[in-house]
Amino acid sequence: MLSLQPLYIVFDKLGLTIKSGLLLCLASFIALSVIFSSANAQQSGESVNVRSADHPTFSRIVFDWQEIIPYSTELNGTELIIRFDRAASFNFGRLTQRPLRFFGSPTAKIEGQEVVVALEVREPSRLKHFRDGTKIAVDLIEKTVPQALAAQPKRATETLDQKAQKIERAARVLAGDQLKKDDLLPMPMAVSKSGEILSLDFPYTGSAAAFMRGEHIWIVFDKLFSVDQTQVEKIDDGPIIEARQVEHENATVLRYHVKKGHHLQAALKDQGWHFEIKKNLTVPRVPVPVGLQRGSGQGDQFFLSANKVGQVIKITDPDIGDELTVVPLGNSSQGVVRPRQYSQFTILSTAQGIALQLLADDISANHYRNGVGLASAGELAVTKGKLSNRFAAEGEDGQNDYAGSGRLIDLEAWKRGPLPDGDFTENKHELLYRLAIATEEERNQSRWNLARFYLGHGFAADALGPLMLMREDDPELEDSPEYRAVLAIAQVHLRRYDSALKLLSHQRLNAELDAYLWKTIAYEAMGQYPQALLSYERGVDILSLYPIRQRAAFQLAALRAAYAAGNAELMQQELSVLEQMPLPNDQYTQVEYWRARLYQQEGDWDRASELLEKVVRAGERQTAALAQYTMINAQHLRDELSSLDAIDQMERLRFAWRGDRFELDLLYRLGELYIEEKEFRTGFETLRQAATYFAKSSKTRDITKLMSDIYRDLFLDGQADILPPVKAMALYYDFRELTPLGADGDKMIRRLADRLVAVDLLERAAGLLEHQVKHRLKGVAQADIASRLAMIYILDSKPDKALGILMATRHQQIPNDVAHRRDLIEARALIELGRYEEAEILLEEKQGRDVELLRADIYWGAENWSEVVRNAEKLLSSRDNKNRDLSQDERRTLMREAVAMALDENSPGLRQLRQRYWPLMQGGLYAEAFDLITSKPEEGPQNVRILTESIASVDKLEGFMESYKNEFNAGL
């Protein structure tokens, strides 16, 4: 035995595995023959691995040179000679023990600066050789097979999976059947680096496993491919030190030596598998539940439950030398969160799939449709091993227990309290007792334990009290990341999202992935969907460390944010994960609801409506209300439901669920429907409620904009004209905060005032313009609107107020047209006050028909009859056609002239006036009065005064009122 020991060491260097004494002796003689035959070759320091395998029609050997080496070949009947221009030794591996169909035993010797390899040719064959990078491949091909068929590529139309299934295996070796990588169907690989994250992408969608062991990452696919990993080595300053593909019979096994402190994450995308190597802690998205399963007939099994279970694959770890059992899985990011070690087997933590180390000879890993079972021929021992397995049989949630692990947020650990066997009440009483007897120095620690216990059980309001008292006693806690995180969680539960985000945004929490998950909920609740999705992306790596219910809460928040952001891919990804989780009914119905929304988004309304009806029948109030609201909206948009019917159904939903975004969305939509039905007041009131109740929501801005736009359409673009003036005015006053600033707002006010004047609501119209003049306007604009307000005062028989507002808004620099208009209105106010002389002086320098009409009223009021006659003749002289019918203004002027002549006892003038105008006055306004005055001029003025005083006064009032109202009507 002692004589064989050196030979065993040599075999180990040659890479041989010795399993028995007999094989050891047999291998010794084979190895000795190789060693002695190539003694000269061993003098070289460089060693080259040689791989070999048989194929159906040819045999191949591959020399794995590390540099490009010139070579030549020579086939001489029964011997193949290969010359390399570099002295080296060769590790021929299995070829020394098991010849191939065409290749026999090899020999190698150094001749000067080159090495010559001689191989026996066992059957007649043809030679083919080629270079692949630095590697050199040599084939001996069956002579009866055309050369083109020796390595015929598969049709391009075949899928990667179909091609892989058609690859045949021929070579057999000690460690099992292996196919040389050079002969395999290649699978492209994409490598990219973003910051400190290195991404590896493979265009394969079958089952995969991925895990870390020590400083090595293993990636295993259930189909066999050749993967060119040269891109990995080209990444500068990346986490991978070395990349290699481990030979395997029927699986792709990739192994990466990585720098310390890195972790692995796996995800199945539409294009294939995506792996990320990063520094932060990562766990699989879908934990594989584990636990003891009582068997019937075949004993107990330790069962790992999974979907889309791939084949069981055996691989050997070259560093440790042990065998691993790997089971790839087809679902994205489905792996084992926490490692477990028992006396008979070890379960490794994985990023994807299942990895096992079977320690006992009688342990087997059995493949099932719904998972992997570990069974023993004897008794299955699942007691504690090297690691604590206290929660091994508790199912999926058992993987989440990291008590004492130092995690910043650990709800499960906080829940347990100081009494392991106590219930909630007993633990609460114990914590309160400890707080009561605590010294001043111990008090904050006791409060801390109590607050976290409350928070672990979801009693955020109860937790907030001790936390606040802690800060009062120790203000420096504000800078503690642990304290800020716990306080922030309490604020999230209490829906104080602003406060929670301020706490979680502290720089000392930037590296804590837990903080990003809680930010996801806060941002989503506030409608800040892009920030929510970014936070979720940062924190998702540790999602599985949380209990199922809290994990689902994070995922549902991300799902809602993805829907709002239009990210259907993320929705599909999250729904696929959530649908596999054992959720409570309230969360499960939410998953079904969002699946229905995704169907709806994809245009599949039939499937969506079917699922929504199912959610309603489930009876969870909140989700049922959401489903009903969605169906009502969809049916209305599809013209299956009228607006009135939609309003009726939504009004009933207002009491189905209150609060949250549901009520905001419901009020928003109800307001829109009321506006569509011209129920403006109810619509505005509903929208105002939404904006008031949810003032901090990002959607509030959209609601107020909608209200402003509708208000503008009503009072600026004339849509309010369909409303009675009083209702329009009431609507304006009740929602006047929507009046826009600037010119549009001023125009809106003037337009409404004009409409009120048109229906004689003069006081209301004056109130509108008073507010505008006093609070909104300055300068020329103020002077202009003040003149309109003065007109309304005059119409309302308040000439003194008209003069007051005109005096109060005088400015030095006013355009001539505005100044002229203001002077005329001021003159009218003076006339109404009987201040005729002042009015006449104000008009001295002015000309024009409107000025002459005012002078007519001045002379009439001052009883200056001769001027009344002269002014009337001046007004009537402008008639271009003497035979044209008289206008009402001209009839009024003629009537005044006749009365003035009569009162001035001007009988000749009356006769002449009758002669000129009676034919035109007949049959029209004032015809009878004109006839009475002008037909009997000899009658005294007293009778004329009695007849005409009322006529003249009414005539004057109607005249200027009509002209002013016409001016207001022109603005409508």
Reading side by side through the largest sheet, how are the strands ordered?
A: 5-1-2-9-8
Shape: elongated
Question: How far apart, in Å, are the first and last alpha carbons?
Answer: 118 Å
Largest sheet: 5 strands, mixed
Helix content: 40-55%
Structural class: alpha+beta
Mean pLDDT: 82
Q: What portion of the residues fall into strands of 2 or more residues?
A: 15-25%
Radius of gyration: 49 Å
| Total count of helical runs of at least 4 residues | 35
Task: Name the poorly predicted regions.
Answer: 1-44, 145-182, 384-405
How many strands appear in the DSSP assignment? 33
What does this structure look like?
This protein is an alpha+beta fold and 972 residues long. Among the domains are: 1-33, no CATH class; 181-278, Immunoglobulin-like (Sandwich), CATH 2.60.40.3470; 286-392, no CATH class; 402-511, Serine Threonine Protein Phosphatase 5, Tetratricopeptide repeat, CATH 1.25.40; 739-846, Alpha Horseshoe (Serine Threonine Protein Phosphatase 5, Tetratricopeptide repeat); 850-970, no CATH class. Mean pLDDT is 82; it is low at 1-44, 145-182 and 384-405. It is built from 35 helices and 33 strands. The protein starts with a helix and ends with a helix. The protein has a 5-stranded mixed beta sheet with strand order 5-1-2-9-8, with no helix packed on it. Strands 18-19-16-15-30 form a 5-stranded antiparallel beta sheet.
